UniProtKB/TrEMBL annotation:
tRNA/rRNA methyltransferase SpoU type domain residues: 158-261
Organism: Prymnesium parvum (Toxic golden alga)
Chain residue ranges for the region called Disordered: 28-55, 103-123, 138-160, 312-331
Protein's name in the database: tRNA/rRNA methyltransferase SpoU type domain-containing protein
Coiled coil: none
Length: 346
């Protein structure tokens, strides 16, 4: 047989072998999974509301005003901010903060560095006070009877902890527990106080039931060290606690708030989204206007609040397509620490 014929036969045999191998590999390949259902990506389309308004509408539909979180006498701003973030995440709109008379004395921690007056500012204040005293002594005039200064505003909550969630809550500040109790009675709220006393009922007790509407439920969390005040405990309709099963008798304030609030929502799922249409419309107008970042948006966003509300999302989570750029949200310092262990969180 000529050499060219042998080469042709060899090439044909090789081609047939490769084809058979490919056919076998294709048969052994597992079947492809069915394509997932097409989800709403939330992209802005012409004629549709912007994604940020649709997200705000979704959050607003799940907000409840039947549940009030009361934080009494907490002197740790980080705990206050964490409780506000927990309330926002679980859909609670109203958070009331009560300042305890002993909270200022109990808090010996210095203010944050950025709030401390500089050395020059302290020196100028001392000089101004000294010159004023000298003038009064020289003139032999009685001190000016000026009205007492207004109370200082409550300290701002840490945005690093709240992640701006406190900006979307209805916060109320009270100077005393008595003022808060009066406001709760005016709001027709049933007061549950969280304590560790023996007479407190466990949160998972079947006899412990959420009051039906139109009554509201107020859950009071006390100070980090001593709990609620005696005045607040006396005004309570029920005393409750979250049962623990370890050596620790208590939890962090924000952790206990998250567990108790979630337990209350599980007791009565109708709390989710329980809000009057008047309050929801007022919050919608306020939120949509605050979400506007440009003059053009300041004109168009309020129209969505006054007209037909945007269509809410089925799921508040970002889609996988949007999470592909999640690594850009992680600070570079954290990424450098992770090094090769850094993986995109999907």
């Amino acid at each position: 047989m000529p050499a060219c014929a042998r080469d042709s036969l060899a090439l044909c045999a090789f081609g047939v072998s490769v084809g058979l191998l490919l056919l076998l590999a294709r048969r052994r390949r597992p079947p492809r999974p069915p394509a997932p259902p097409q989800l709403d990506t939330g992209k802005e389309q012409e004629g549709h509301a912007p994604r940020r308004l649709r997200k705000a509408e979704t959050v607003l539909r799940r907000r409840t005003s039947r549940l009030i979180v009361v934080l009494e006498g907490s002197y740790d701003l980080h705990n206050q901010a964490a409780v506000c973030r927990t309330a926002d995440s679980l859909g609670v709109q109203h958070v009331w903060l009560v300042a305890s008379p002993t909270s200022a004395a109990a808090d010996d921690t210095p203010p944050p560095r950025r709030h401390r007056p500089t050395r020059r500012a302290r020196r100028e204040a001392e000089l101004r006070a000294l010159s004023l005293a000298q003038m009064r002594e020289a003139c032999a005039a009685p001190p000016h009877s000026a009205p007492p200064p207004p109370p200082p505003p409550p300290p701002p909550l840490s945005r690093k902890i709240t992640r701006h969630s406190a900006e979307w809550l209805s916060l109320r500040h009270f100077d005393s527990a008595a003022a808060c109790v009066r406001a709760l009675r005016e709001a027709s709220a049933v007061v549950w106080v969280t304590v560790l006393a023996q007479h407190a009922a466990p949160l998972d007790a079947p006899a412990l039931r959420v009051p039906p509407p139109p009554a509201r439920l107020a859950i009071v969390f006390g100070c980090e060290s001593v709990g609620v005040s005696a005045e607040m405990a006396a005004a309570a309709d029920r005393c409750v606690y979250f049962p623990l099963h370890g050596f620790s008798e208590s939890l962090n304030l924000s952790v206990s708030a998250a567990l108790i609030l979630q337990g209350v929502f599980q007791k009565d799922p109708s709390l989710r989204g329980a809000m009057s249409e008047e309050e929801r419309a007022a919050l919608r107008r306020d939120w949509f206007l605050r979400l506007a970042k440009s003059p053009e948006q300041c004109k168009t966003y309020p129209a969505w609040a006054l007209g037909t509300p945007p269509e809410p999302f089925d799921d508040l989570r970002r889609t996988d397509e949007m999470r592909g750029t999640e690594d850009k949200r992680i600070p570079p310092k954290i990424r450098r620490k992770l090094g090769e262990r850094f993986v995109k969180p999907f």
